[in-house]
Structure formats: structure tokens, C-alpha cells
Amino acid sequence: MRLPPAVLVFVGVMLAYAAYYLLALVSRIDLRFDKDHQGTAALLRRCSLLKGNYWPSPWIFSGHLDALVMMKLRPTYDPQYRREEVRAADGTTLLLDWAERSDMSPSAPILILLSGVTGSGRSSYITYLAREGMQKGWRCVTLNYPGTLGEQLTAPRMYSVSSDVGRLVDHVASSFPDAPLFALGFSLGGFLLTKYLGEVGSRTPLRAGIICSSPWSQAQLAVHWTGWAKTHVYGRHFIKHFLKIYSNNKVFRGHAKLVHENIVSCKTLFDLHTHLHAPLSGEESIEDYYLANDTGPLFANVKVPTLVLHALNDPVVPQVEEISKNPLAILAVTQTGWWPTGLSWIELACLQYIDAHLQLSSTDSSPMGR
Fold first, then answer.
1. What is the rounded (10 degree) CA torsion for 350, 356, 358, 362?
2. CB burial readout 262-282, b (16+ within 10 A) else e
3. What span is annotated as the signal peptide, if there is one (predicted)?
């Protein structure tokens, strides 16, 4: 029986794409770490997902499609959060969302979740991790960045800073002094976590940190964001987010360092940094702002085990090479990004890394030292 030409064409296209998928997209995870560090080696023996090949989604073949699905199209889950408010030193109100069960022990592990710049406790990747964490018997707590949930601000700040992470970590540690603490940050959340860890060194109650798809320098990010998609899609998305918070909050009116006409005319990430973020941060110039927001030099001072996950096709994050110089760090680089439904590889790998720490800490001969 002869097949219709349309069927033959379809089969040919599918076979060609299957070959492309297997030869070009499926690739070995590029794993970089200090092979002489006993603790890191012990962790990796318990992290099978960080070894071997990475199998990306067969139908999300672009970093831009990855980002679109993750931000807009992925199903969400409602963890039934408990809301808590804490104050930062400058008067900013920090909204925390707790995912927990009533029967949890005060010593249950706690996972601190830090979303991307426009994300919150409602973001799909945060809700999936909160659900999975609760199923494992962990408490999960998310920091919602100021203004993200539409609340009125109590201080002239519409983004989080590394001191907010410190405030959150210290608050959680004092609330649950017997619980092992871990922190996981995505994109901006990863940047804030890196900055916090580099600033405090060993003076943190965190057992370990996980940094996913994080920019390492705000200046490098602004330079990296060129081209139509990054300027007109991601840039507009972020600018719209911050301008909405700016317009909806009276606390910015009459601010001595803000020029309204310049802010509402922002077209690029550099414009946003120059006219909004740098003045609100208290820095005297955009150069000072960028100098203060470069985590590259700080990473050498990170003194807790840290997993860094990065995809080469990430449209937002520039490539970084210096991470593997820290003996406590594991850098895992994949060719492409997320699976768009259910728990993705990156989320499962993060959870497995935390499980590995908990397994090691339960043994008397733990090489992690904490």
C-alpha cells in the first residue's frame, strides 16, 4: 500500500526532527566542581540528575519559548499559603508566603524560595517547588518583592536587595532555630542570594544555596540585553512591571532623586537602571549602582555549599566562568532550559541536591562540616 505524499512528508519531517533532537539538543551535562573536595564529591554521589545526559523538552526548542512558557503558559498550583509580614530596616514591608502543614515539626527542613524579578509566591515554578517541598515534609517560604502583589508600599523601594534576604534568613532562623535552612533563587532571586552569601561569608545559618539562571552583574545584564527579543519582549515586560508599581504608589511622589518624565520614558533596561533603580538605591551614579551590583567578585567569599544551574540558551543570563573556582560550588550547565509542564529537570535537580545535604547531615561522618 502506498502512503499519501502528505503522510510521507510528515514522517520525513518527524524523523529529521528526531535526528536533530538527539544529535543537537540532547547533550551531556557540563559539570564543573572541585574534584578534591570531599564534601562536594559526597554530594554528587547522591545527585544522579546532575550526571549523564540532559534531555530537554522536545517541543520547546528555543530559550525564548522556554521563557514565555515559564512566565505565562505553565499551569500553577495553589499551596494555600500563610501570609506573614516583616519589616526591613528601611521600613519596607516584606510579604512572606509560608507553605506548610499543621502537623510539621518545628525542626522540619525549611526551603526559602526567591523568584525572578516579576515573580512571586504565585509563580508556577515557586508553587510547584512549594508543593513538592511540603510533600517531602519541608516548610517552604517565599519572599514576595515589594509591590509585586499590588500592595501599597511603605517605603520608596520597588525591588528587593540582598539585605532583604538577610532579614528573611535571620527571621526564619529565629522562628525555627532547630530547622536546617536552605535557599533557592531564580534569576533576580539567584542574584540576591549570591550577593547575600558573598557579603556574609560563613556568618549565615543556611546549610546550602542554589542559584538558577542568575545574572551576575547588572551592568553585564544591561549590555547583554541587545537585539529585538530582549529589548522589545523581556525589556518591555520588566519596564511595564516597574512602571505599574511606580504609578500605583504615592510614596514615590516628590522623591528628590526621581524625575517623572525620565521614568515614564524608559525604553531599555539601562534607562530603567539609570532613572529609577540607581536613584532609589541611594547610589550617586549609574556607574556606582553597577559597581555595587556585581556579584562576580563576591562569589569567592561564598562559604556554604552552592549549586549553580545555567542553560546556554537562556535569553537573559550571560555565561559565567568563574563559579567553579569556589571549592564549595557545583556548576551544572545544560544546552537548553526547562521542561514546561510538571516538575522540570532543574526543579528536580534542586530538590535532589537538598535531599543529598539532608542525607549527609544525618550521618555521623558527614564531610560537609555543618
1. 180
2. ebeebebbbbbbbbbbbbbbe
3. none
Give the 3-state DSSP-derived string for 31-54, with helices as H, strands as E and coil as C: EEECCCCHHHHHHHCCCHHHCCEE
Residue 21: pLDDT band with limits 50, 70, 90? low
- Give dist(CA 329, CA 44) in Å, integer: 11
3-state secondary structure of 212: strand
CA–CA distances in Å: residue 289 to residues 34, 236, 248, 264, 319: 33, 21, 25, 20, 21
Q: Strand 110-114 and strand 139-144: pairing? A: parallel
Angle at 261 between CA 255 and CA 262, to 5 degrees: 85
**CATH code at 26-216+306-358:** 3.40.50.12270
Whether 114 and 186 have beta carbons less than 8 Å apart is answered as yes
Q: What is the pLDDT of residue 104?
A: 97
In angstroms, the CA 335 to CA 321 distance is 15
- 177: number of CA atoms within 13 Å, CB side? 1
Domain with CATH 3.40.50.12270 in the chain: 26-216+306-358
pTM: 0.88
Where do we find the cell 555543618? 370
Q: With bands split at pLDDT 50, 70 and 90, how would you rate the model's confidence at 369?
A: very low
Q: Distances from the Cα of 363 to the Cαs of 111, 137, 165, 197, in angstroms?
A: 21, 19, 29, 26
The mean per-residue pLDDT over the stretch 319-326 comes to: 75
Residue pair 165/143 in contact by the 8 Å Cβ criterion = yes
In the predicted structure, residue 353 carries a pLDDT above the cut 60: yes
Apex 74 CA angle, 72 and 80, nearest 5: 105
Closest CA to 211 of 353, 57, 69: 353
Residues 101-159 have pLDDT tens digits of: 999 999 999 999 999 988 899 988 899 999 999 999 999 999 999 999 999 999 999 88
Q: d(Cα 262, Cα 42) in Å, to the nearest integer?
A: 53
User: Strand (E) positions, 100-174?
Assistant: 110-114, 139-144
CB 265 within 8 A of CB 271: yes
